[in-house]
Each structure stands twice: as C-alpha cells, then as structure tokens.
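Researcher: Let's continue the batch. This sequence belongs to PTS mannose/fructose/sorbose transporter subunit IIB, and it's 155 residues. Same format as the previous ones, please.
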Amino acid sequence: MIKLLRVDHRLLHGQVAVSWFGALGANTILVANDSVAQDEFRKSAIRLAKPEHAKLVMKSIADSIKAINSGITDKYDMLIVVESVADANQLIKGTKNKITSLNLGGTKPREGTKNYSKTINLTNQEAEILYSLQQNGIDVYIQQVPSESKQVFKK
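Model: Same format as before. Here are the structure tokens for PTS mannose/fructose/sorbose transporter subunit IIB:
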C-alpha cells in the first residue's frame, strides 16, 4: 500500500526518514530515481539516512512502475520519494491509478523557477504538470513535515 508519494530534491534525509516514515506507519521506503539506481556512491549515502527498521529499495522510475503494477509492493506500507515533479508525474501516470495524492516537500530554486512556498520552487512547466494532475483527480499539496498543515497547491 502506498502511504505517500513525496517530491523532495534531497530524496532521503532527516525529515523524510524520521518525521514522515514514523508518522505514516510505513515499513518500506522506495527511492524512485534513475540516477540513484545507477550510482553506488549515492546509494551508500542514502542508506545512511534510512531509519533502523525500514526496508529501503532504490529503483529507476521504470523499474518502480513495474514493481508497483506487478503487485509485489502491495504487501508493504510504502513511502515513495522522488527527486522531481517530472519523476512524480511519470510514476503517477505509469501506475494505473494506484497513487491518488502527491506531497510537495522540497524543490530547490533554479533558473526560471517561481517560489510557491519556503521550500517549493517550480518552473512554469512543472506548475502545469501539477495543475494537470489536479485536474485528473490527484490531490497535490505542500507539506514539509507531518505536524504542519497541508497547503493545497495553487497554480
């Protein structure tokens, strides 16, 4: 069961590993990221942030979609973390309505981005993707930690 899909450019770190993992009652973290899936150094660094009793899986976006669609992940209470809005969009569209909400946790400022909150910076294209997801019934919201209130994403 997918407990949360979160966009966070830092992937797995203290807020995700401690706050979200515990609050959700998750037992598994899936880091869905093409570059991490091929980078042993990044995998090692991410393993250091993993909560002690968590199962950690790191897969490419395509392999993550295959695993979710196959049903093999159904037995887990899973927190999924992706690095970008594009990755989240691909995952949502590829998993046949298994993901109904998207938590925006952190996107760093980049050239051509607009600030939407203290931690969310989006290009016009990313904002359009999120708006499209909302139009298709996905609950898109900004929330850094579980103790904060959800802020509905507004274009």
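Researcher: Any comment?
Model: The two ends are 29 Å apart (CA to CA).
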